[in-house]
UniProtKB/TrEMBL annotation:
It comes from Aurantiacibacter rhizosphaerae. SMART domains: EXOIII. Residues 234-254 are annotated as: Disordered. This is 3'-5' exonuclease. One of its GO terms (molecular function) is nucleic acid binding. The lineage of its organism: Bacteria, Pseudomonadati, Pseudomonadota, Alphaproteobacteria, Sphingomonadales.
Length: 254
């Protein structure tokens, strides 16, 4: 029988010619399923893989230097509109798709291609669950956490679609087991709750270490994650658990 949709989250990782479609295209997609077992625990599933994609344009040297995918590797591959749907909408369905910094994958994995799937951002969830990590990149979390069962060589080389999806899936598994599916979806729909100031003179300081006046200056920062994080610390000091998120500001700074 087909797997019930609520029992599977599919991790997606893309390698591309750049960051801005339609000017840039996908040249590789990788995936790794995380499934809910009968014991109520999430674990890596059997379904995984990777596929080259013809991006419809030459791969620039600056991105080739990151993932080392050559034009000749992808020239006979199918195009994105053909490759994406069966991977993003597998038989049996999914509870959600997931990626580390999912906003990047979502630029290419449009609702039309994904069937309107919900997304989990493992980066945003890591900010919440592991706030003391020295950094929140996929690979720093990998070596800071050393997730159980992660086979070192299977997660290499980095910046290739399947190895990166495989590493992300270990973070997602542990996040699901700690916080649950609905909580991860809620966090993923909000800006990132940064545990520390990310730049400037206060870089590296926890929000609770900032004086009130200084903290309030960050509520007008250009970075949505910074604004949101400062607002949440203000709410905590005022006795609220969190302030409601009304969505991104349009044409103004908060």
């Amino acid at each position: 029988m087909p797997m019930q949709p609520t029992n599977r989250v599919r991790v997606i990782d893309l390698e591309t010619t750049g960051s801005s479609p339609p000017a840039h295209g996908v040249c590789e997609i990788g995936w790794q399923d995380v499934v809910l077992g009968k014991d109520g625990r999430w674990a890596l599933g059997a379904d995984h893989g990777a596929s080259f994609v013809d991006p419809g344009r030459p791969i620039p040297p600056v991105t080739m230097a990151v993932h080392h995918i050559l034009d000749e590797d992808v020239k006979s591959s199918p195009f994105w509109q053909e490759v994406a749907p069966p991977i993003l909408r597998p038989e049996g369905g999914t509870a959600a798709l997931a990626a580390h910094r999912a906003s990047f994958e979502q630029r290419f994995c449009t609702p039309k291609l994904s069937g309107g799937a919900q997304w989990i951002c493992t980066w945003k969830c890591a900010l919440r669950i592991w706030p003391d990590s020295p950094s929140f990149s996929n690979q720093v979390l990998r070596y800071w956490r050393m997730p159980d069962g992660l086979e070192h060589q299977r997660g290499l080389p980095i910046h290739r679609a399947f190895p990166d999806a495989y590493v992300t899936a270990h973070h997602l598994r542990d996040q699901l087991n700690e916080a649950g599916l609905e909580q991860l979806l809620t966090w993923s729909a909000q800006p990132g709750l940064l545990p520390r100031v990310p730049y400037g003179n206060d870089r590296g300081r926890y929000w609770h270490e900032l004086e009130d006046d200084l903290l309030r200056r960050y509520t007008s920062d250009r970075n949505e994650d910074v604004r949101f994080s400062a607002q949440q610390e203000i709410a905590r000091r005022e006795g609220a658990t969190q302030t409601p998120y009304a969505g991104p500001a349009q044409g103004k700074l908060l």
